[in-house]
Design brief:
Layout (H helix, E strand, L loop, with lengths): L5 H17 L7 E2 H10 L6 H8 L9 E2 L1 H12 L4 H11 L9 H10 L9 H11 L9 H9 L5
Antiparallel strand pairs: 1-2
């Protein structure tokens, strides 16, 4: 039996929360339609056909949607930089005003929209997160800094 660290368990709990949020009808599968709706909420304009194509390698033949295990694989492939296009699109989600930078306000808004933090989350925590990866100390993240943040291990 593999040992699971507390951090891995916390990460899985976070992914499970996101999965349950995306699985709007709570049927245990995230359908193409549900995934498309979620992505559109994040202001990623994508068609159901594109979502179906994106998930085609993860969907099992007997399922109409992603079960939790497949959702975890898709999520981890994005975080592990196996899908560069998805990572590039992620930057666009956070860069809400499309100026090429992510501010702490944008970070707070997107994370709360995704259900990863409460809307009332202290802006100071988002500022600290940005500060940690803001290599040029201009108070915002550019694309290169964002890639470093997405590739880093979470703080204990």
């Amino acid at each position: 039996m593999e040992s699971t660290s507390l951090q891995e368990m916390a990460d899985l709990n976070e992914i499970r929360r996101m999965y349950e949020m995306v699985d709007e009808n709570a049927d245990g599968e995230v359908s193409v339609s549900e995934m498309c709706g979620f992505m559109n909420k994040l202001r990623i304009p994508i068609s159901e056909e594109d979502v179906r194509f994106m998930l085609s390698t993860s969907l099992q033949k007997d399922c109409s949607g992603l079960r939790f295990e497949q959702f975890v694989e898709v999520y981890q492939s994005i975080l592990n930089n196996k899908d560069h296009k998805a990572r590039d699109e992620s930057f666009g989600v956070f860069d809400e005003n499309k100026d090429g930078y992510i501010t702490s306000e944008e970070l707070q808004h997107v994370l709360s929209t995704m259900g990863l933090i409460p809307l009332s989350q202290d802006l100071q925590q988002c500022e600290q997160m940005i500060c940690r990866f803001d290599l040029d100390r201009n108070g915002v993240l550019d694309f290169a800094e964002f890639k470093i943040m997405m590739s880093s291990e979470p703080s204990p």
